[in-house]
Amino acid sequence: MQARNLSRAIFWGLLAVGAILRAIGLGSKGLWVDEIHSVCVSSSIEQILYYCRGGHTPPLRYFLVWALLRGDSPELWVRLPAAVLGTLTIALVFWLGKMLWDWRAGAVAAALLTVSPEHIAHSQDARYYAVILFLALAALGLTVQIAREPEKRWRWVVLAFVCVLNLYFSYVAIFPVLALGIYLLFCLLRARRQKEGKTVVQKMAGGMALASAAAFLLFLPWLGEFLGVFRLYAGEAPAPQARPAAAAKIPVVPVHSPTAWGTPLNWAYADDFLARLGAAPPVLKWALLTAALAGSVLWARRDRALAVLLVGWFVLPWAIILNTSMQYFCPPRYLIHYLGLYVLLAATTAVWITEWVYRMWARQVPNRPVRSAGRIVISGAWVLAGLLAGAAFLREDFRYHSMAKQDWRGAVRFLDEHAQASDVVVAGGYWSPLGLSYYGGELSKPLNLIGGFSTAARIVKEMALYPRLWYVTWGPISPDIADLLARRFELIKVLPGSQGDVLIYFSRPPAVSRPAPGG
Hints:
It is built from 20 helices and 5 strands. It is mostly helical. It has 2 domains: 2-240 and 266-401, no CATH class; 408-507, D-Maltodextrin-Binding Protein, domain 2, CATH 3.40.190. The chain has a 5-stranded mixed beta sheet. The longest helix has 36 residues, at 198-233. The termini are far apart.
């Protein structure tokens, strides 16, 4: 009873802290360009379908944004699903830890997720990767329950619904879906091999057939689009060309090839990915990785089916990525499903070490009161270590909460204050025009905004026409533009953001030519 009360207190405490961390600044921070792009695409149902058909994303997240744009505060409303389901993911991780190991592993994993900077950031983002993680972990919990009790048919149907719902949010949800399918297939084959009885095998086979049929029917309206994307990334079809904006009532950003924005899969990528799964300090990053690897061994020793699940969850995605054109563009957020099991594996190791140390202590000390005191000391040491680690996590959380995601509203206000009427503002790359135009309605004076120029020569032509030129951008700057900015512009303002700094440059007046000596 005491352990149950403690478990409940920890559960509700973590849920409350997680909700607070995910609610701070949810509606006060301006949208960043990826969110603005989602809002622009979601201007109408027609626009959503136009953009998603033949593109790289399914429509559900845009439909959700479209529905939420009815609110007066778009920043708050479009991020609300991520914040709510991000908070509930803490409860899911607690439940999964309790089901797969024990409640203490669930509590430690939930604590890690509560203060995870990466998860907090996604829980305040309208791209809904926090929703994808929630649905992936919900499907995992259902799958484990089904493997243990396959006779409840309603669970199979709910599992199919959750997996298809996730695929309607993002095609990258195929990674956890495939892992769960492989896990269930292994459980079925193991049941046949171990001769657990025809009844169990029949229930498993019947349930898998039912879930497959339900998933097929639910995904059938979008199956053709999904297969088209599959052929595209597998290299069986050319990249879709940008369609003319005139075909849509509201212009959209063209659909590009998956190779348009490169993602180098090198050591820097791996190091950044590990930091996102944990925290930036090297000690924490490598400690969590070591604990997660040890936890995978503990899980595999407990149940071979869990070993198969881990291979499908962590290894199979990279077999797909490295053998498709995804290898050219695969940001860490595409593997958001890693995060839940990663912290669970690390938590399992922490609990196992605690028990192992206590057993060693108990063997040396036969006196029960001394053994109890030892358990208190060991638990206290872990609590202290947890507090120190939590402080490092929270420091990153504070840094995230102390700045905007991308301060396009601040950039517009700065231009409104310092630019003169009819000045020309050139927007840089990486959807910078979206950021400026979205908040441009707050300007009190007319400014001439020109779309992003990809070469320095185009900017030079504008400089020949206009004496006062502003250049606003974020993200990497090409070498030719960087050279032009160094020679002909002055960096006036840097607006820091957790998703990238916004840089504001102003053109220098041309140098006054002087007569040659003796002229």
